[in-house]
Amino acid sequence: MKARYLLMAIISFCFAQQELKAQLGFSHEVGVITGPVAFQSDFGLRNNVDTNRGNIGFGIGIVHYLNFAYRADCNCYSRDTYFNDHFKVRNEIDYHVTNLDHFGEESEDNDLGGLQLRGHKGKAQVFEIGSQLEYFPMSIRDFSAGAYRVAPYVSLGVHFVSYDPVATSELGDIQGQFINPFSGELAPTLFPGFAQGEGQNNSGIDDRPGSTWAITWSAGIRYKLAPLSDLVLDARWHYYTSNWVDGLNPDPRPVNRANDWIFWLNFGYIYYIE
User: Which of 130, 245, 257, 267 has the fewest CB atoms nearer than 10 Å to its CB?
Assistant: First the structure.
């Protein structure tokens, strides 16, 4: 899972946090988020209702915020600037898992290809760590003081991603053959174009662990539950810079137009640390 890269990212984040704290002064918020993940990959057909509804997993994350509107070192408000009153930095660690199946017209065909697609199963196991810059159009100070209960925001960021896909087939070994019930002859277990390649520079299936990056953006709202706690509802998109996060990158086909990405709708609880 590229542990050395993860360790380097954590160390870099810690040093950056200490340097920023020394220069600006800020307070901390911590919380947890969780919710369903819709994984858009090479399994199934894009823009297909059954694919969007069927390939849904579950994610959980631990979040940490840098709140520039309030300084924990003096229990006082920070200098009143536009940045301090409208921006936060969110750091997080996420993990999500999605079981993947083929949906759409091809998989429903009563022929060899449809049988191969229905038998092919996948699992995307993804670990992410990264940061986003959140923008609040309304005053963070006023929201913290209880002037209003709901605060919308948008965010943009980057995550380091470590993934470990799983590929199986109900028809047998994914590198083997099975008896074609339509002809009685041996046939490949996998659909044409899905054969395992010799590496991630080739098309096909590669279920080895790997790493990549994700560009993240989101829109959400915070609800003031109590002076030191919020509820958060967040709709986000993660676009991966690799097409191997799901372990599948078939020969050029209409389903293989873009890299893998996810839509994650999560709900969370945030606590302010004084």
Answer: 257
